[in-house]
Fold this protein.
Amino acid sequence: MSITLMRTPISQRWCFLFVLLSMVEFSIGKLFFHPFNVTYDHRSLIINGRRRMLISAGIHYPRATPEMWPALIAKAKEGGAEVIETYTFWNGHEPIKGEYNFEGRYDLVKFAKLVGSSGLYFFLRIGPYVCAEWNFGGFPVWLRDIPGIEFRTNNAPFKEEMQRFVTKIVKLMRDEMLFSWQGGPIIMLQIENEYGDVESSYGKKGREYVKWAANMAVRLGAGVPWVMCKQNDAPDFIINTCNGYYCDGFKPNSNKKPIFWTEDWDGWYTTWGGRLPHRPVEDLAFAVARFFQRGGSFQNYYMYFGGTNFGRTAGGPFYITSYDYDAPIDEYGLLSEPKWGHLKDLHAAIKLCEDSLVAVDSPHYVKLGPMQEAHVYHKQGNGRSSFSESGDGSRCSAFLANIDQHNVALVHFRGQTYKLPPWSVSILPDCQKVAYNTAKVGAQTSIKRLDDDTPHLSNTPVVQQLSRQEKASLVSESWMTLDEPVGLWSANNFTAQGILEHLNVTKDSSDYLWYFTRINISDEDVSFWKDNRTHPALTIDSMRDVVYIFVNGKLAGSKVGHWVRVVQPINLLEGYNDVALLSLTVGLQNYGANLEKDGGGFRGQIKLTGLKNGDMDLSKLSWTYQVGLKGEMQEIYTLDGHEKAAWVDLTTNGTKIPLSWYKTYFNAPDGLDPVALDLRSMGKGLAWVNGHHIGRYWTLLSPQDGCKQSCDYRGTYDSSKCTTNCGNPTQVRYHVPRSWLQESDNLLVVFEETGGNPFEISLTTHYAQNICAQISESHYPPLSRWLNHGSVDGQVSINDTTPEMHLHCEDGYIISVVFASYGTPIGICQKYSKGSCHAPKSSKVISRLCEGRQTCSIRVSNADLGGDPCRGVVKTLAVEAKCVSSRVAGFSSF
């Protein structure tokens, strides 16, 4: 029996790192590395003269708070990443032309320095177009107002602005000594982004633009390689790269360039009213292993941490506030298992093969069956690459793939037989023993609790962990309210003939734009409607994204859609009637050609139909325009501004009223667990905590159908394959970063558009409540044993093949064992029971090893678990435990 305890668990290391980094005074001359050069050849990046196989983790700095950055970077490093990747966000850095913002969540320099001080490299994708499900694709809206501008083509006004911003970023990085040759972490840059998807829309001017962008970037003298993703006509001096779910078949446009995967889509984004997509980790690991198997050398997860679209940063239209992306680190900064753990093991296995991978220009291909193949990287001791069936003690690594989606395959390789599960890759660091198989998960697996509290079950039985559980409490029993006026409230309104385009008026300073007009209805029309028992209707030829229609101050109806027709019956009185249209954007278009031509509001005619003498064209009338909401423009959501508004006490009879503001105070939940607001009792609107805009909320329901009880990882993935949450609101919980909270008297302000009940708003905290693990004695040994064993004659090897079970709770929690059995346990997590074969001592053994500890490791063998309870049977260890607060339990975390 033995146990391996982490004396400094990851949670404590994160805490230590945060304290350490917060004390560091960065200076311009700070060196994170000895200065080194970065080049490349046809095989890989060459860092300081050495070829490298690199795993990169995508983390977008504005989608988290600076207080979260150190822990996110540390978890990425712990998970095996050696590079951190991010876009830059032009509209966040230059919201007003010539006025720059590099503070708070947009402190790019601080983020880069944290990456460097963690010993990781940095891949900066300047763009400046980013897509990223980010508002307007990262472009500042003022850009569209420059005379004669056309985005992303051979257009002088656009190129001038783009070059100015890219130059600004490169100069900033150089001034802060952040490039590799200065001792900084930046090893690679990107110009443009997925332009190949839209290039054909621009014809010759598009092709010219690609060449201009590439030359402009290189002339800036950054001194590191530049890439263009999804750009098959990238010039010779730019590396063209792949984005997608699978990139193992990708080849660059020159045999002098390496194979790079800049966006490995490990999940997908979500729209309001949509299902929640999930990508099984077995398929994701298969895709990554195949990429390196077939010659890839740089792979970046999009996203490794997705985060949150705070404020109005979500693009669209209709992308939700959460950008969790089903990533290895979830929206709240907690590990999302099994993705994080299974990928960590994958990265370790690839690392074991790195010497062989970089030494061979191209692998030796071996066909093992009709849908089975091997790629062998074999370097002889003299440095020459070759292949031999017997091997000669020199470095050799192999990948064995079974791309059959349905059948297990037995294959023969180098005199041995290997069993390959369907749709899987086995990695053999020494060309003999399997260190890892993509379909055999040996890490904890999350069972996500969804908004209807229905668990999302993984199909992976090896190790299962219940997802973050929520401890909920009502925010407050005392609320105040304020009505948002339907009508003109500011002298800043203006009147114009006809219908103006939404963005031309708001400049995206607000989601909201009021259109007001007055129409005169004759007694003949009123009589006509009464005699024919009909109603007039307001029709709009085309509208996006949301419109609320008010007649004489009362809500008549609404419509949601992307350039859809509106037909709304309305009631009108004889004489003058006030018509008000409240137009809303829900994230600006972030993808596609000609973004500068996209807008919001209304297109075509607005008419009043059903009149006795024919339709009335309201488009030709004079309309008065009011940008934003009164409460929004007066900033009544801020710590100072809310005191200036005429709030009144709210009773339960005063709820569910459209266009209402609500405010209350609340105390922060105890502890350090991540916090969210549960807004399922509300309709649609915006929310702020202590003046921080947590984002848009909307309880729009997803479709009733299209979700499956379980997901088969085998076969090609797409975003509709494995979805959950059917029939429920797409999002009900909204992340409130701990750094935005104080211990008590936190101000919460909510603007509700359609009507909701704030008395039912609750706070939830997130943590891993239950963990379940199940692993067989025939499972692979831990990869740490390969890494610690070293090599023999330059070849990685291992002797101790005993598998291990690893259990861990989140920071501040310790293990309390509920069930343990070694033998033939049956059932699933939370429904385990002893089978016909059970080692009587196994429960006590597990309790002694794990009880009261934050993390523990158990060797899965007869000797370690109390003897062999049933000879001749492959035995399994199953454990179920709860994660309980170390403060409540009276223990200290180990």
